[in-house]
Request: fold
Amino acid sequence: MISSLFVLLALVSAAPTPVPTSRPALREIGRVRASASCASLALHANSAISSALHSDLLVGQTMSRLREVDLDGSVIARRNGLQELARLAKDLRAEAVAGVGEVKRLRELAAKSTNPTQKKELKNFADSLGGALYRQKKIANDLNGFLAAMDYHDMATFTESQQDLNRATLGQGDARVIDPVEKAKSIGRDPRAQLPANQLAKEAADDFQQRVADITNDEALAAEYTEGAVSGC
Reply:
């Protein structure tokens, strides 16, 4: 009985460890046949791919910046941090929107294709890449929403110097000071905006990080369809 157990353990230990199946990486299409249709397809496909890959970099930069930015420190540090995040949001959205436009053209080419394989694979390629670009644009939109919440908080809260000035001239703080939490509730905004801004920024980065897996999956699917999408070229 004991010897049988040793044999079983030996067989288990000798069994090869499963190796994860690697998926193709998204990369631009190389040379295609010198024809107007193939050149047009490659141009729009590579433009969409370039937008997706550049957006990946911008998403990574955005997450890093959200984790490092100091929005609870000095006024200057907060302003500079918000301006940098606004630039990233603008660049990311512009890149993703440009890619979505190229995907639309790819779908039009797929609809016109007379090659059954290319017609199907090109549409699948466009749909998968379009999914990644849509998710990237959604991150840009949500980052803009985060920045809008920060701006709202700044506008709804008087600075200490303004309060001091009111006390000096009126003998009291401004009676119109708005409680941001109550105001947020009254217009349906999340009162969590009153948490430390740095904490909210890190939570936003974590949220975006969770979305990266879906973007990566969409891009891998697009890569799998690339060969069929350019069949005949």
User: Anything to note?
Assistant: Residues 33-166+178-227 form one domain. The chain has seven helices and no strands. Residues 57 and 92 are 9 Å apart (CA to CA).
